[in-house]
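Working notes for the structural subgroup meeting. M.R. asked for a predicted model of this chain before we commit to crystallization trials. I am recording the input and output together here so anyone reviewing the notebook later can reproduce the run.

Input as submitted:
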Amino acid sequence: MQFRKTTNPSIEERIADVNGRAYDACVNPARDSIDFIKMDIEGGEYHAFLGMETLLERQAVGKVAFELNPLMLSGHWDEFHRLLETYRERYAARFYKITNEGLTVEASLDELFAHGETETILMSLSRQE
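Returned structure, recorded in token form:
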């Protein structure tokens, strides 16, 4: 995989090749379940979610915390919004902003994507036990 990282728009972009594995390849979604995933992957969230679609489809994930950073996700901002909307529709995913005090406040995806600033988000999925 190739990831681009820009920490400041006035500084030249850096490109790095990194090895990655999909969550789906790391666990057996038919047997295993994950209660909580915390991502801090500087713009790689879109690809990480794509890499755990089987886990989400089988309702093997309870909650996912991730950053919503428009600068880092700039190349996939709209696609990521649509992908999360698909999860909301298919899997009854609910989204919460995590405040600086650590509280969760439910919000629509449109609200979260409209802010245009870095937000810490919690996605909660209904799981069948």
